[in-house]
């Protein structure tokens, strides 16, 4: 039997991976939902989790569960949950990778044949039916990612403002962009998926006991992601507002999307950039100056950023009214000699 290279499907602009991924996804979607992905339509008020009431209820539930759970866990020992933790991170790595590949398959031909402006500012470019399916699945995945925080609670790890704010705000951001029909949505989503493939793979390997040296560069990748996001989102918003209200100002034409979605995107993404840059400098730059070993970076960051750590409800009998993740008074003190366990704070 001879092997013919001509039978191997080679990547092309219209078929970036050589084979077409969408037909396989279409069948998998039908097996799971009961109808093919080609038949999916996002209808505000009808599609599950497509109303502000549903989104708000999910966010309120998230914060009630994690903060309430943290108080409840004060009476119990920290849970290990290592197997579930590994499974959770492996699933999120896989889901992020699959969604990213599907986005690439849809976007490469559009970008090549019609250009970047068409892809970010035209519904025919950035709001096609297949892309809307992927936008919606990415949005639902944000609620699954809430389990990240539940693991922190059950393992009695500190809850930081950056972590809890980011999870809730990202779900809200995805909701506003779906409702707002913003064609530029694929830019922050694809970059976020790329970051998540790297980040959740890191946490999966970490749970397996494998020490990885490039954790610092995940934060750098996240910061770069938000910078690129803001360039595109501010450009799309500027184009929309100038073409709508200030046609005399220089602009490239019209841009699809609703005004509330533009303000939401600019506001939330800008806050991310500020918070992640602050986290980077406190975690890595200051640690380097103090000469502390890299292995204590995470805990030292929590010590330095104690005002950013979300306060706990005081419980009678605890020294100074504070307890660390293991129930001892002032948990930060246990790591001052560098012998305490490393605390990992998850940022997505």
Describe this structure as you would to a colleague:
There is one protein chain. This protein has helices at 22-33, 52-72, 82-114, 116-121, 123-126, 129-144, 147-154, 161-180, 186-207, 215-245, 259-290, 297-304. The protein is globular and about 60 Å long. The protein has twelve helices and no strands. Mean pLDDT is 86; it is low at 293-307 and 315-348. The N and C termini lie far apart (49 Å). The protein is mainly α and 348 residues long. It has one domain.
Keywords:
0% strand; disordered C terminus; mainly alpha; 348 residues; 61% helix
Map the helices and strands.
Layout: H1 22-33, H2 52-72, H3 82-114, H4 116-121, H5 123-126, H6 129-144, H7 147-154, H8 161-180, H9 186-207, H10 215-245, H11 259-290, H12 297-304
Helix pairs in contact: 2-7, 2-8, 3-6, 3-9, 6-8, 8-11, 9-10, 10-11, 11-12
Low-confidence stretches: 293-307, 315-348
Helix percentage: 55-70%
**What number of domains?**
1
**End-to-end distance, in Å?**
49 Å
Mean pLDDT: 86
Helix-strand sequence: HHHHHHHHHHHH
Number of E strands: 0
Tell me about the largest β-sheet.
none
Q: How much strand? A: under 5%
Gross morphology: globular
Name the structural class. mainly alpha
Discrete helix count: 12
Region (Disordered): 314-348
GO molecular function: fatty acid elongase activity
EC number: 2.3.1.-
Biased composition (Low complexity): 316-338
